[in-house]
Design brief:
Helix 1 packs parallel to helix 6, helix 7 runs antiparallel to helix 8 and helix 10 packs across helix 11. This protein is mainly α and 612 residues long. The protein folds into three domains: 194 residues, no CATH class; 301 residues; 59 residues. The chain starts with a helix and ends with a helix. It is built from eleven helices and no strands. Helix content is 78%, strand content 0%. Keywords: Coiled coil, Golgi apparatus, Membrane, Transmembrane, Transmembrane helix. One of its GO terms (cellular component) is Golgi cisterna. This is Golgin-84.
């Protein structure tokens, strides 16, 4: 933009010189009275608003026909942009600077409204002229902003609307200058009649000098127009390059969009597979829970059978103790009875009172001795059976202890299985949470990618619209510089977009890696789960047999209705199962018979003694 600043400075200096010359000409050719009138006119001439025609100042002087030289050299009023043959060099420069032939439409597009009095300051500085030195010179402001030096070269973006506003303002300034020049020339023409010949000659020389300066300015305008044409050609080339770049980038973005959509479809399929695997794992966990419930019921049944066996053992122990006590008492009674009988036999043998009754008694005694021998043999048998019962009780106790150990082992196994089930449930819940998080992240990434694609499409459409609008706008030096800046901005945006795409691709790769890691963890958990299921099944099939071949347990076909029937059934089962009960009943019956015989013999013996 340095060349533009130099160009603006040259134009400003040229306009200042032109105003100084016109002011000097007016000072030389106007009298003091006319200066007073000019002062009044100067104070009456306020700056017209932007894009508004200036009203002519009413004068009382005579109308003088204008000269052909002034008409040919200086344009009067505002000429249309289509008539290029009758335009002055200043108007050519104005048309070269202007972007569009209708500045009113451009002024509607601009956001701020500037006039000749309200406009940005110039780089050269505001001209504060005195009334006497610079007559008719207005305060002009250049269209460049004040903060041009403060803008960074790296992040400098200049809006096209501001440039259009500045072009319109420059055009308005040139139009105002042309109007002032025409007014001054009309005043000069009106004052020609009252001036001397010398003044006329000096005026003609000054006019010739002004014409020479205008010719030089027209030459400069031609060179500037040539530069503008070259810059326009460069701008067209840049537009073509930008269009090609946008097409290539659009194709790249479309390919990347298709690849991202395919990757998203693959991720969705993988998520579906993981959900199916999770459902299978949940069904397997439910089957495991059912198997565990079956094992728990079997354990409870085993514990109930063990408790029943323990109760039976305790009852058998108590009955054995009671039988031992009764046997000892019975032995003592039998010994006492035998001792008394032996004493009686000795007394009978010593008394020699042998009768038939005594012979019968002796025979009975011998029979009783034989019975005693038989009873001693029976007692020995009972003792052996008691020993066998004790050994059987010890075996039952050993089995009971082994059953308790098995129950403890089963409880530990159940505890371990419950812990494993809790761990598997926790892992399943963690996997569910991870799957949900993955689904959320994938949804967020898909939404962000879609928004990014929409933003890119909107930016590309904006670039296309801007390129089309740039084609329709004016091809000036300012617009060329702005297009250079916009091209840099576009390249920066494209670079940023490519960086964001690379970051999104990296995020997608990381998500795929996490998905693969989760899949490996799922496979490991499935293998663990299968091994635990196999172990549980093997433990479930290992049945513990607490019964032995010696212990004959018959199935309960008949269920008793009352307590007496149940007691009789238990007594019958005990008599059938344990022979000691049968022996006890037999001994009880023998004891009862012996008591009856002893009482009978005692009565007979008492009767015989009574008769003797």
């Amino acid at each position: 933009m340095s060349w533009f600043a130099e160009l603006a400075g040259k134009a400003e200096s040229l306009l200042v010189n032109f105003d100084e010359q016109t002011g000097a000409a007016l000072r030389n050719h106007n009298g003091p009275k006319q200066r007073k009138n000019d002062k009044k006119d100067f104070y009456l001439q306020t700056d017209p608003p932007w894009m508004q025609k200036k009203r002519p100042i009413p004068r009382a002087w005579k109308k003088v026909p204008p000269s052909t030289e002034s008409k040919n050299n200086f344009p009067v009023g505002r000429s249309s942009p289509t008539r290029q043959a009758s335009q002055s060099p200043l108007r050519n420069n104005d048309n070269a600077r202007s972007g569009s032939p209708k500045p009113k439409k451009l002024s509607k597009k601009s956001s701020p409204l500037y006039t000749l009095n309200n406009c940005p300051k110039t780089m050269v500085g505001d001209m504060k002229d005195e009334f006497g030195m610079h007559y008719g010179l207005r305060q002009r402001r250049s269209s460049l902003p004040t903060d041009l030096d403060m803008v960074n070269n790296d992040e400098w973006v200049y809006k096209i609307q501001n440039l259009e506003i500045e072009n319109v303002m420059l055009r308005n300034e040139l139009n105002v200058l042309n109007q002032e020049v025409t007014e001054l020339l009309s005043r000069l023409r009106k004052t020609e009649d009252g001036n001397d010949v010398d003044h006329v000659v000096s005026r003609e020389t000054e006019l010739n000098n002004a014409q020479n300066k205008l010719e030089t300015s027209s030459i400069q305008n031609g060179s500037i127009n040539a530069e503008n044409e070259t810059l326009n050609s460069q701008l067209q080339q840049l537009k073509q390059k930008i269009y090609d770049l946008t097409n290539v980038e659009m194709s790249k973005y479309k390919e990347q969009n298709q690849s991202l959509e395919t990757e998203i479809c693959l991720l969705k399929d993988k998520n579906k597979e993981l959900e199916e695997k999770l459902e299978e794992a949940i069904t397997k966990a439910k089957d495991n829970e059912a198997a565990k419930l079956k094992l728990e019921t079997e354990l409870r049944h085993g514990q109930s059978t063990i408790n029943e066996l323990q109760n039976n053992l305790e009852k058998s122990k108590t009955e054995c103790v009671r039988l031992e006590k009764e046997w000892e008492t019975y032995k003592l009674r039998v010994k006492s009875m035998l001792h008394t009988k032996d004493n009686e036999i000795k007394a009978l043998q010593d008394g020699l009172n042998l009768n038939e009754d005594t012979n019968v008694l002796m025979e009975q005694l011998e029979a009783l001795k034989e019975e005693r021998d038989m009873l001693s043999e029976a007692t020995s048998r009972v003792r052996t059976e008691c020993d066998e019962m004790k050994s059987y009780v010890s075996q039952l106790e050993a089995r009971h202890s082994s059953a308790e150990r098995v129950v403890a082992a089963l409880r530990d196994a159940l505890r371990d299985e419950r812990g494993a089930r809790n761990r598997v449930e926790a892992q399943c819940s963690a996997l569910n949470k991870e799957l949900k998080n993955l689904q959320m992240e994938t949804g967020q990434t898909i939404a962000s990618l879609r928004t990014a694609l929409r933003d890119k499409d909107s930016e590309l459409s904006h670039f296309r619209e801007s390129s089309t609008s740039v084609r329709s706008t004016d091809t000036s030096a300012l617009n060329v510089a702005d297009y250079d800046v916009t091209r840099d901005v576009d390249t920066e945006k494209i670079h940023v977009l490519t960086q964001t795409l690379v970051q999104k691709q990296g995020k997608i790769d990381s998500l795929l890696a996490d998905n693969n890691i989760l899949r490996i963890q799922l496979e490991k958990l499935e293998t663990k789960y299968k091994s635990e299921v196999v172990a549980l099944r093997s433990n479930a099939h290992s049945v513990i047999h607490l019964q032995d071949t010696d212990c004959r347990v018959r199935p309960r076909s008949h269920v008793p209705d009352s307590a007496l029937s149940a007691l009789s059934m238990r007594i019958g089962v005990m008599i059938k199962r344990y022979p000691i009960f049968r022996l006890f009943i037999f001994i009880y019956m023998v004891r009862y018979c012996l008591r009856y015989i002893y009482s009978f013999m005692f009565i007979r013996y008492s009767k015989t003694e009574y008769y003797h």
